[in-house]
C-alpha cells in the first residue's frame, strides 16, 4: 500500500477524476433523462442501479484497454484518438438529429437505457482513463488507479452534473484545460509505446531512450497541439455573421433594439442594470425594444441516440430558466418590456446571429474581463461575440 503515499498516484487519480467529469457530463444528462418518467419512489433506484451497472461495465472495459495497450503500436493509435477527442472538446458543438428512445416509465427499462448509453458513449472515457492510469501511474497499480478514480468521479457526475455543466459554461477555460490534459496524456502514450522503447519488441526499429524529460516534453507538445489545432479548427468552423448596413439607431446617437445576453452571473446582473440605465438616457425611452437571450452549449450528438427531441428540448429549457428568471425579475422590477429567447449552440456566434436576425443595433452582456489574447486562447464568450458581429457591444463588469 506504499503507492498510496506517492505523489504520482494522486496526480494520476486527479487526472482520472478530471477526465471522467469532463467527458462524463453527457452521460449524466442521459441518466437524468432516462429516469425522469419514473415514479419519484423509483427514480433514485433507477439512478443508483443504472450508475452501478455503468461503473462496473466501464471498469471492465478499461481493464481490457490497459491490457491492449501492451501491444506494440496500439498506444500510438490510442494517443491519436485521444488527440482528436481533445481537439473536439474545443470545437463548437452543433445539434444533431434525435433518436426515438425516450425515458422509460419502468425501472428496468430506465436502468437498461443508462447502461447501454454509458457503453456506447464511453469510448473516449475508456481510452483517456486507461492512458492516464498507464502513463501517470508509471504502469504500476493501474487498476487501483482506475477503480479509485472512477468510484470518486462517477457520483460527482451523477449528482453534481448540473453544477459541473454550469461551471463549464461560465468558465470555458475548464474545457480548454481538459482538452490540453488529453493532449498531455496522448503525448506520454506515444513515447512509451512498446515498439518505440523496448529493444526486444521489433528490434529493427530505432528506439527512444525512456526518461522523464522525454515524457514531459511529449506531454507539453501534445497539450499545445490540441490547443492550437482546436482553436484553428474552431475559427474555421464558426459561422461569420456580417452586418449589411450600419445600424440607424447607432448613427443617430441612440439605440432602438438591444440584445441582452444573460447567464445568471453577477456580470449579467450588471448588464441588466446597464440596459435599465440606457433607457433613461434615450429621448424616446418607450421606443426601446429589448431582447433577452440565454445561450447554452449543446450536449454531444451521442446523447441524441438515447432521448427524443422533446425530452432534450425540455432539458434545455429547464437549464435556461434560472438565468432568464433572474433577468425577468430585474427587468420587470425596472418596468421594462422585453422578449425572451433561449438558444442552444456556441455562445459567441449564436448571440451575434440572433442580434442580426432581430435587427438589434446594440448587444449588452457581462464580462469577467478576459479579453484580448487571453480571451482568444482560453475561450472568452465576449471575445467571440465581438469577432462575429459588426454591431456595437457594450460590456458590463
Question: Would you mind describing this structure in some detail?
Answer:
The chain has 397 residues and is α/β, with parallel strands linked by helices. It is built from 15 helices and five strands. The protein has helices at 7-35, 40-68, 74-89, 107-121, 123-136, 142-170, 173-190, 194-197, 212-237, 248-251, 266-281, 309-333, 347-357, 372-378, 381-388, and strands spanning 257-261, 289-296, 339-344, 362-366, 393-396. Helix 1 crosses helix 4, helix 3 (74-89) crosses helix 9 and helix 13 (347-357) crosses helix 15 (381-388). The longest helix has 29 residues, at 7-35. The protein is globular and about 85 Å long. Mean pLDDT is 77; it is low at 95-101, 240-253 and 370-379.
Structural class designation: alpha/beta
N→C terminal distance? 50 Å
Q: Strands of the largest sheet, in order across it?
A: 3-2-1-4-5
Summed up, the helix count is 15
Largest sheet: 5 strands, parallel
Give the C-alpha Rg: 24 Å
Query: Which series of helices and strands comes N to C?
Result: HHHHHHHHHHEHEHEHEHHE
- Mean pLDDT, to the nearest integer, reads 77
Residue runs with pLDDT of under 50 for 5 or more positions: 95-101, 240-253, 370-379
Binned strand content: 5-15%
Number of strands: 5
Shape: globular
Helix content: 55-70%
Which terms would index this structure?
397 residues; 5-stranded parallel beta sheet; 15 helices; 5 strands; 7% strand
Amino acid at each position: 500500500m506504499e503507492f498510496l503515499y506517492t505523489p504520482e498516484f494522486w496526480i494520476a487519480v486527479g487526472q482520472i477524476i478530471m477526465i471522467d467529469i469532463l467527458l462524463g457530463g453527457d452521460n449524466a444528462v442521459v441518466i437524468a433523462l432516462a429516469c425522469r418518467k419514473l415514479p419519484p419512489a423509483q427514480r433514485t433506484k433507477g439512478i443508483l442501479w443504472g450508475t452501478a451497472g455503468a461503473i462496473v461495465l466501464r471498469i471492465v472495459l478499461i481493464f481490457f484497454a490497459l491490457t491492449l495497450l501492451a501491444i506494440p503500436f496500439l498506444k500510438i493509435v490510442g494517443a491519436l484518438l485521444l488527440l482528436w477527442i481533445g481537439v473536439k472538446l474545443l470545437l463548437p458543438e452543433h445539434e444533431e438529429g434525435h433518436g426515438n428512445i425516450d425515458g422509460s416509465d419502468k425501472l428496468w427499462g430506465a436502468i437498461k437505457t443508462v447502461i447501454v448509453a454509458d457503453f456506447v458513449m464511453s469510448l473516449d472515457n475508456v481510452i483517456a482513463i486507461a492512458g492516464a492510469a498507464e502513463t501517470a501511474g508509471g504502469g504500476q497499480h493501474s487498476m487501483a488507479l482506475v477503480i479509485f478514480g472512477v468510484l470518486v468521479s462517477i457520483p460527482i457526475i451523477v449528482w453534481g452534473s448540473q453544477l459541473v455543466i454550469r461551471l463549464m459554461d461560465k468558465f470555458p477555460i475548464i474545457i480548454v484545460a481538459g482538452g490540453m490534459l488529453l493532449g498531455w496524456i496522448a503525448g506520454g502514450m506515444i513515447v512509451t509505446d512498446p515498439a518505440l522503447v523496448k529493444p526486444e519488441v521489433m528490434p529493427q526499429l530505432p528506439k527512444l531512450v525512456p526518461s522523464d524529460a522525454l515524457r514531459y516534453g511529449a506531454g507539453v507538445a501534445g497539450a499545445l497541439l490540441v490547443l492550437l489545432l482546436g482553436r484553428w479548427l474552431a475559427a474555421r468552423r464558426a459561422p461569420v455573421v456580417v452586418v449589411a448596413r450600419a445600424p440607424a439607431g447607432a448613427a443617430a446617437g441612440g439605440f432602438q433594439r438591444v440584445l441582452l445576453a444573460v447567464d445568471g452571473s453577477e456580470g449579467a446582473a450588471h448588464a441588466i442594470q446597464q440596459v435599465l440605465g440606457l433607457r433613461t438616457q434615450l429621448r424616446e425611452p418607450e421606443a426601446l425594444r429589448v431582447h433577452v437571450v440565454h445561450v447554452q452549449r449543446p450536449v454531444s450528438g451521442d446523447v441524441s441516440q438515447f432521448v427524443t427531441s422533446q425530452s432534450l428540448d425540455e432539458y434545455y429549457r429547464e437549464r435556461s430558466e434560472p438565468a432568464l428568471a433572474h433577468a425577468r425579475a430585474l427587468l420587470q422590477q425596472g418596468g421594462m418590456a422585453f422578449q425572451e429567447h433561449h438558444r442552444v449552440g456556441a455562445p459567441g456566434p449564436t448571440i451575434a446571429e440572433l442580434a442580426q436576425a432581430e435587427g438589434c443595433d446594440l448587444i449588452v452582456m457581462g464580462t469577467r474581463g478576459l479579453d484580448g489574447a487571453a480571451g482568444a486562447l482560453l475561450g472568452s464568450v465576449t471575445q467571440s461575440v465581438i469577432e462575429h458581429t459588426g454591431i456595437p457591444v457594450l460590456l458590463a463588469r
